[in-house]
Amino acid sequence: MRNRLFLVDGMSLLFRGFYATSSNGYYMKTKNGTPTNAIYGFLKYFLDAAALFQPSHVICCWDMGSQTFRTELYDQYKANRGEPPEELIPQFDLIKEVTEAFGIPNIGVSGYEADDCIGTLARRFCHTHEVVILTGDQDLLQLVDEKISVAVMKKGQGNYAVYHHENFYEEKGLLPSQIADLKGLMGDASDNYPGVKGIGEKTATKLLQEFHSIDGILENLSNLSKGIRTKIENNLEMLKLSRTLATIHCEAPVTCSLEACQWPYDKERVKKKFEELEFNSLMKLIG
């Protein structure tokens, strides 16, 4: 069986775990008052996915602060996001201790996002390994390739939309290589860049199906309806910038060896960490 590398979008799982376990205002805490609900949720998601996808190697990637090359290009990038909840803040460092207990490398590079680290590692190792990316973020769909699949977590534990080379066009109506152009056209409210004002997903998809790329659209402006052409011409600079912001940078200066991320893990080391965090109910998940 081919080796399978599991690339985990750490922040995506951690935030998802936090909100899934605090919707009623209750936060899990240890006896000394340390919040642990996000970590608990992270582990539930991660261990379920690991049992399903059976990796031979695992790497977890993280954002390293809000300032990246994208904020240098556009200072409003993700500027609509507030500060993380107070109960989540101490869990940012603690979750990395937990993944380290599993023997999972924590990868992050200042100036880049976790997505860039994931893209770089996926492209680097897909020549020798099957790569599965675990995330809740559809931005990573642009990385789908013959040897790279993306498992997007859906509502409820254990539910995944798995996108791979064979099913992608059928599911999305576009190729993975067109996703950054799609977001360049329609923008992204969660990342706070507008794309072309007045062009939504349906119109953007139709344009890309016909002209294949933003460059192809710009070469055929005279063939567009007056309304669409005017919108693009009035937002040309932001269109190009939005495409750049949406594109995952797959040449981040990431260092990680496959030897450092082999799976499975030392169960005794993990049990010791679970005991420290009072995760008694999770013990059964690690045998």
Per DSSP E runs of 2 or more residues, the count of β-strands stands at 6
Terminal Cα separation, in Å? Answer: 24 Å
Based on secondary structure, the structural category is alpha/beta
**Contiguous helical run count:** 12
Averaged pLDDT: 95
What does this structure look like?
The chain is of the alpha/beta class and 287 residues long. 41% of the residues lie in helices and 10% in strands. The protein has twelve helices and six strands. Strands 3-2-1-4-5-6 form a six-stranded mixed sheet, sandwiched between helices. Strand 5 and strand 6 form a beta hairpin. Helix 7 crosses helix 8. The protein starts with a strand and ends in a 10-residue tail after the last helix. The model has no long low-confidence stretch (mean pLDDT 95).
